[in-house]
Amino acid sequence: MLSTLEKAITSNGLVAAFALVGFIILISGFISRKLTFGRMHGSAIAILIGLALAYWGGIYSGGQKGLADVSLFAGIGLMGGAMMRDFAIVATAFEVRPDEARKAGLIGIVSLLLGTLVPFVVGAALAYYFGYRDAVSMTTIGAGAVTYIVGPVTGAAIGASSDVMALSIATGVVKAIMVMIGTPIVAKFLGLRTPRSAMVFGGLAGTVSGVSAGLAATDRRLVPYGALVATFHTGLGCFLGPSVLYFVTKAIMA
Amino acid sequence: MIIYGTALLAVCHLLGIFIGDLLGKIIGVQTNVGGVGIAMMLLIFARMFMEPRGLMPKPTEAGVTFWAALYIPVVVAMAAQQNVVAALRGGHVAILAAFGAVVSCACIIALINRMEPKSDVDPFADDTEMPEAAAVDIKPTA
Question: What residue ranges are annotated as transmembrane (chain B) (predicted)?
Answer without folding.
Answer: 7-27, 33-50, 62-80, 92-112
